[in-house]
Amino acid sequence: MRLIACAAAALLYCSAASAAEPAAGTPATAAPSAAADRVYPPLPTLAMLPPATSDDDDLPAPHSSSHKKKGRQHDCRCAMPTPRLVVSDASRAYLKDIERQLDSALSQ
Amino acid sequence: MHQYKSISLRAVRTWALCGWAALLGLTTLGSTAVHAEPQANDCFDKAGAYQGVNPLILRAVAWRESKGDATAINRNANGSIDVGQLQINSIHFPELTRQGIPHRALTDPCVNIFVAAWLLKQKMVRYGNTWRAIGAYHSESPHERDAYARSIQAILVSWGQLQPSQ
User: Fold this and answer.
1) For the segment A54-89, what is each residue's pLDDT rounded down to a tens digit?
2) What CATH architecture does domain B2-26+39-158 belong to?
């Protein structure tokens, strides 16, 4: 179940350029970034993550001493999105029902 | 020994997939499987761009296969089952498992679309950017293949994406 949730989350946020619309009469057109003669893995891999940019969050500064100063502490509330429960009882029940349907279909 | 290697490889793939989610999920505001439908629409574009497949074809296939019902599970006369809005056939389950995708993951709308794009791309590599490739998504049998391709054409025509004469 965790894998499903992980895969879904990964897919929802994978980077992708918008695909070209087809010309009339053209059954399928390849996006510019994808090779026409190559089949990629079903799901993007970690290696396909976009490279880190300078816009990314700053890494924490290395500790120069064992004494922490309160003034250096970073207030994470300013720029971070509000955490929200991703998995709910409703989603668990939904997935449980789907699993039951799949098991039932496979066992017939 | 081989079994251990296989198991560890599967575990690595699983965690790689989860790592993707963890890294990209940093910006997430959250969503549940129950409310995954709006994001699934984006998945057509993302899967199309990823594999180099026209997302409109994927949308038309989803409409042809299940009228866009992400929960569709159907049993075929030959004993196989089709899962999700693009009706991924259970004949592909072993290969998908080797690729780190358990068949239960196909009930996720987005995974379902990405897997369909993967299957369609295989046909495109084999048959080129042709209607034959689209028909072969459904069947390699010439009669069924051509009928399926025509049905996808008809859907695109009805959506105003294709001229009726073509």
Assistant:
1) 555 555 555 555 554 554 555 555 566 666 666 778
2) Orthogonal Bundle (1.10)
